[in-house]
Amino acid sequence: MSQIRFFIPLVLLFVGSWPDALRANQIEQAPPTLSSSSFLLVASQQIADPRFRQTVILVTRHGNTGPIGVILNRPQDITLDKIMPDFAEAKNFNLFDGGPVYPDQISYLVRGADTVKGALTITVNTYLAYDAALLGELLNGKKHYTGLRVMHGLASWAPGQLEYEIKRGDWFVMPLDEAVLFDRPPAEMWQELQSHAAVM
Question: What is the structure's pLDDT at 197?
């Protein structure tokens, strides 16, 4: 098995190193939920791309960066202890497929943790982080948390690409809900949200 690597702890350096093609332009006439800093994308029935079929994605925008996201509902047949064997608690977490970009990199969503330095704030209580040392502190109980989801890979879009896909009908845009991020069973997440979004 190839070794899975972690993002560098300084998220600003990570984002700043992306190609210019991934930097966002000002969105004109975007729906209110799309222009917010973080929101949910729910795949419509028409998406055939196996990388995104029946997915629910947390998307976030910060500063001048383009939209990046992580798939929420694709647990893999591997537990976190396979790549972090020094932490007994890691066996309780499935590793999720977060998207096709940088598939060997690790990121994680954490809710209710102590101060999370160098992470993207998703809600007042939720962060998207890349720091391996912090993840270790969460797993060994040095920092308190109420939700944790660990992923490899990301999703990203070039300027205007996501807006085009939404207008084409590939995605439903929904407000962010912390319960979706951590509490809904992954196997039920897409069907529930897609059915709700389709009748909105």
Answer: 76
Rounded distance, CA 54 to CA 42, Å?
8
User: Can you give the CATH number for the domain in which 133 is found?
Assistant: 3.40.1740.10
Q: What is the pTM of this model?
A: 0.80
Contacts (Cβ under 8 Å, ≥6 apart) of 104? 2, 3, 4, 5, 152, 153
Collapse the DSSP code of 139 into the 3-class scheme (helix H, G, I; strand E, B; otherwise coil) and give the result: helix
C-alpha–C-alpha distance, residues 145 and 99, integer Å:
24
What is the residue type of 116?
Answer: V
Tell me how far the alpha carbon of residue 149 is from its chain's centroid. 9
Enclosing domain of residue 116 = 5-198
What backbone phi and psi angles, to 5 degrees, belong to 90? -60, -25
What is the spatial distance between Cα 32 and Cα 29, in angstroms, rounded to a whole number?
Answer: 9
**Residue from 31, 9, 10, 36 nearest 166 by CA:** 31
Residues whose CB is less than 8 angstroms from the CB of residue 187 and which lie 6 or more positions away in sequence, other chains included: 73
pLDDT digits (tens, 9 = 90+) for 35-66: 458 999 999 999 989 999 999 999 997 656 67
Total domain count, the chain: 1
